[in-house]
Design a protein that fits this description.
By secondary structure, this protein is of the alpha/beta class. The protein is built from eleven helices and 21 strands.
Length: about 425
């Protein structure tokens, strides 16, 4: 007999290949092109998480980071989780999940409180209260708060404090970045995971999760922008002096390149994707204008040849658009060309040949491709820029697990600061420990 949990069948009795393990963390990156599940184990005596299971399947029911068909999206999650479970020998009931989509918005907020203790010493309760004050902002009926990220504190006349605990004063202020999403977006994501038989432990904004896997403290101190080129969207996160300065999700991604090729070559999406992966490059210079691509190689129903130079022109034009939009976002915050650690590119779109050279020309910054770091285990499965978010979710979850029994950077977890519907799982954590050195 087998029982059904969500859409995924689970055994009534645990089969032999499901081993009993503790300290298991799972991350599910629900992208526009693919759903990626990564399972890791926290090993006693080892600092790095050990990756034990990976599952990747094409996405269905997801467009530009938003769920448009819950049943189809749940099937994709179900299949991805199932593959990772079989590899790891673990059954996953809870996971940390990414959220993206163009419905994400940001706003700055401030909180102000009087110090509670008679001697003026700042304690954890004071920090909790001032962050709670920062979340007391007017929200439309259809919006939820996902994250509240303290950027800096002020104690009386002293500015730019990163951690006020133990200091003495009368008035404590915080400047915070509030990340919001439409309530429907969060509800649909939650229902999708529930239907797939997964309980959401936490929801993390996709570029923030990615940054945990690929950016170093030194890069965040110097100034860096993470650029995640996904299938339906491109997201960015800008850091400087250890602080998160800005994040945005842009409505264009690598999937648009495939669409452009399909239109330009008058062929199917599947053929266009294969042409992009096998012959695509980011710069037209250096491409032989006489080189031809035999389309029948990819589909027997297709005939004729196309110019590789023409395909490259299509790819280059769309990538130029993406990087120009990223540059416009940097100009908004006065950081265009002014980030010493440059830009780190992740996501499936970052794997296009010569993309570094093209990005350098437009962003006028040092450029590198980001790979997830800080793991052991089946590293060959996740040693890829497209796994930055999924790997980052593991680190996000590891922070939460370690944090539950103690204090990171002197602040305890702040639970349930999210407003709006009960579907929101965005428990606000120790943002000082997550985003500041």
């Amino acid at each position: 007999m087998r029982s059904v949990r969500g859409n995924r069948e689970t055994p009534d009795a645990e089969p032999k290949f499901f081993m009993s393990r503790n300290n298991i963390i799972a991350g599910i990156d629900i992208g526009s092109s693919n759903v990626r599940t990564v399972i890791a184990q926290e090993m006693r005596g080892e600092e790095a998480l050990r990756i034990i299971g990976v599952g990747i399947v094409p996405s269905s029911g997801i467009r530009r980071g938003a769920i448009i068909d819950i049943d189809e999206a749940a099937k994709s999650v179900n299949e991805s989780v199932g593959i990772a479970e079989r590899m790891s020998g673990e059954e996953i009931r809870k996971a940390h999940v990414s959220i993206g989509g163009t419905e994400i918005t940001l706003q700055d907020s401030k909180g102000v409180i009087a110090i509670g203790r008679a001697d003026g010493e700042v304690v954890e309760d004071d920090v909790n209260r001032v962050i709670t004050e920062a979340q007391a902002i007017p929200l439309p009926m259809n919006k939820d708060i996902l994250h509240i990220i303290p950027k800096r504190y002020r104690l009386d006349d002293q500015n730019d404090i990163k951690n006020p605990l133990g200091m003495r004063g009368v008035r404590l202020e915080v400047e915070a970045l509030v990340v919001e999403s439409s309530a429907a977006h969060v509800k649909n994501l939650t229902k999708c995971l529930y239907q797939a038989g997964i309980e959401i432990e936490d929801i993390a904004l996709e570029p923030l999760a990615s940054s945990k896997a690929v950016l170093t403290k030194k890069q965040k101190e110097l100034g860096v922008v993470l650029v995640n080129i996904g299938g339906g969207t491109t997201s960015i996160a800008v850091f400087e002096e250890g602080e998160i300065l800005h994040t945005a999700i842009l409505p264009v991604g690598a999937g648009h390149i495939t669409n452009d090729i399909a239109i330009g070559l008058r062929t199917s999406i599947d053929v266009a994707e294969r042409v992009k992966l096998e012959y695509g490059t980011s710069l037209t210079r250096g491409v032989n204008q006489k080189e031809e691509i035999d389309i029948s190689k990819f589909d027997s129903q297709e005939d004729g040849t196309v110019s590789r130079y023409h395909v490259t022109e299509i790819i280059e034009a769309r990538l130029v658009e993406i990087f120009e939009i990223v540059q416009a976002e940097l100009k908004k915050i006065g950081k265009a060309g002014l980030l010493p650690a440059g830009a780190v590119l992740v996501g499936g779109g970052a794997k296009l040949p010569e993309i570094i050279d093209l990005a350098k020309e437009i962003l006028r910054l040092p450029i590198q491709i980001g790979y997830p770091g800080g793991f052991t285990g089946v590293l060959d499965k996740v040693d890829d820029p497209s796994f930055a978010t999924a790997a980052g979710l593991l680190l996000w979850g590891d922070d939460q697990a370690n944090f539950s029994g103690g204090v990171t950077s002197g602040i305890k977890v702040l639970d349930n600061l999210s407003k709006g519907t009960g579907y929101t799982v965005g428990r606000v954590k120790d943002w000082i420990g997550k985003f500041l050195p």
